[in-house]
Design goal:
Blueprint: H1 5-18, E1 26-29, E2 33-35, E3 50-53, E4 57-60, E5 65-66, E6 70-79, E7 82-83, E8 87-96, E9 101-108, E10 112-115, E11 120-126, H2 141-160, H3 162-174, H4 176-200, H5 204-230, H6 238-257, H7 262-280
Parallel strand pairs: 1-3, 2-4, 3-6, 4-6, 5-7, 6-8, 7-9, 8-9, 8-10, 9-11
Helix pairs in contact: 1-4, 2-3, 2-5, 2-6, 3-5, 3-7, 4-5, 4-7, 5-6, 5-7, 6-7
């Protein structure tokens, strides 16, 4: 599955868990060409449960029915049969044929949508997603505001809790390979765990808490990286240096991320190193010392 679909997968799982009564089962269609239901032998033949279409080409033939809802986060979905629930398109391509019926809501957020005029759709909504292709200054306002808030928090921590930041920064600069390895392992396992919890539906609140903790850990790691940069700035106090270090770190990650493929991987590696250092130092509460095995 494409890594870009993982956030959309998590969003779809949260939508399933928060949309009234959760479905009994969830079918994830990852790749390949899949027929969602074989030709029905009776009107009562229905495929139950929610369906999430990722990078696959899925088809619901005429004469068949699924309970739904269907969430499309990539790939292509062609509907020629009957969907008893909603069809939600977050990405990819959705084609609704002339024989299709959607008893619920056809909700289009992003991607390519083609609906035949003869199709029977109970309700259709669309969320307008606009983008500034010119890359105007307004596109950087959220990043600038979040960076400023993070820098102010970093400066306060450098003044009131310098040891916390020092422990994280020391772990990054003294043991980069170890913290990066831990960050990568933690990132991969966390994504898998959150997705699995999402599939249980009843554990969606726990998955939401896990996402919040992960966001806090990434922010703490970024502050630790900023502290490591700021304390190398001559002639500035630790709080000012740490705040400036956070700004420099975020700006550098943005610039490096502009480089195709390699730049993005480098930026992710730096963030994961900060995450690993944060976890290994228990959010800066303890200094990290690697275990030495005696010869």
């Amino acid at each position: 599955m494409n890594l870009a679909t993982i956030p959309l997968l998590i969003a779809a799982l949260f939508m399933l868990g928060s949309g009234g009564t959760p479905p009994g089962t969830v079918q994830l269609v990852l790749t390949g060409q899949v027929t969602l239901a074989s030709t029905a032998t009776s009107p009562a033949e229905t495929q139950p449960g929610a369906i999430i279409v990722a990078d696959a080409t899925a088809h619901l033939p005429a004469g068949t029915e699924v309970e739904g809802p269907i969430h499309v986060i990539g790939g292509e979905l062609t509907v020629d049969g009957h969907v008893a629930g909603d069809v939600v398109q977050l990405a990819g391509t959705v084609v609704v044929g002339p024989d299709a019926t959607i008893a619920g809501e056809l909700r289009h957020v992003a991607g390519t949508l083609e609906v035949d005029p003869a199709a029977d759709v109970a309700r259709r909504t669309s969320v307008a997603v606009t983008s500034d292709d010119a890359g105007g200054p307004a596109t950087y306002v959220p990043l600038a505001v979040s960076t400023l808030l993070l820098a102010l928090l970093a400066g306060w921590l450098a003044r009131s809790r310098p040891r916390l930041l020092g422990n994280v920064a020391d772990a990054v600069t003294s043991h980069p390979v170890i913290v990066l390895t831990v960050g990568v392992l933690l990132g991969l396992t966390s994504i898998a765990l959150i997705v699995f919890m999402g599939f249980t539906l009843v554990l969606l609140p726990v998955a939401l808490v896990a996402l919040a903790v992960g966001a806090v850990a990434l922010a703490a790691g970024t502050i630790g990286l900023g502290h490591a940069v700021g304390r190398r700035m001559p002639g500035v106090s630790p709080p000012v240096g740490t705040a400036l270090g956070v700004v420099v770190t975020v700006a550098a990650l943005q610039v490096v991320g502009l480089v195709p493929v390699v730049g993005g991987l480098v930026a992710i590696a730096v963030l994961l190193a900060g995450l690993g250092a944060t976890i290994l130092t228990y959010f800066g509460l303890a200094r990290f010392e690697p275990v030495h095995i005696p010869e």
